[in-house]
Design goal:
- By secondary structure, the chain is mainly beta.
- It has one domain: Porin (Beta Barrel).
- It has one helix at 7-16, and strands at residues 33-42, 46-47, 50-51, 58-67, 71-79, 90-102, 105-115, 120-121, 130-131, 134-143, 146-153, 174-185, 188-198, 207-217, 222-231, 239-240, 243-244, 249-257.
Length: 258
Amino acid sequence: MRYAIPTCAVAALLAAAPVMAAEEPAQAETPTWTVSSNVGIFSQYIFRGIGYTQKQPAIQGGFDIAHKSGLYAGVWATNVSSDAFAGSNVEFDFYGGYANSIGEVTYDVGLLQFFYPNGKLDGVGSNPAERYNTLEAYAALTWKMFNVKYSHALTDFFGANANNYAQGDTDGSGYIEGNVNYEVLPTWIVNLHAGHQHVENLKDASYSDWKVGITKTFDGGWEASAAWVDTNAKTSIYTFNGKYVGDSKVLAYIKRTF
């Protein structure tokens, strides 16, 4: 929940103010720190169009803290399938960055660390296994309903390199996306998304994804959403334990932000 000065404190300050202040109502001071949390139940975990819970439900949630200067940090977690990330059944995301506005344009830059406890991608032959943990840098611009974002891998992309399936290191892989979130009616938002994942030195793992959905917001920080998601990802790369997870699918969730 985003903290603010309690109403009773504001009333006390106004009562103690000089009479002339009544001509110009006092403004509540922006809190130095803002803290929020969120938790949701999802029909499955989908990341950039790919399903990572073998089409099973996911529980996801996180915590965020932000300074009024624009600096922020947070942690987020979800269950994953060990068929997708061998040795691990949970994903933690740690992130931090800076967000601010120039006129009507909001910009956001930061770092995102994906972490999979005990998760490793097996090497080919006698090559060693590689950890899935991946660090990305990102930059985003938002203007009204429109958003564009680019994420750039600073480490090997989820463990892929010459020890397993790639022709070399996969740091330098990138994901470019465009999003439109348009409020068609009060509290009803249409969500449109298209993105492309490039995997350096592993051409067959590159793909595009897209999504069409709708989100309904409610009082008390609640929201519900349903979306259709699809990709053109290759079945030879994105089939986990016999299940192709880059196919067309429906994502539904209910979430609350505190």
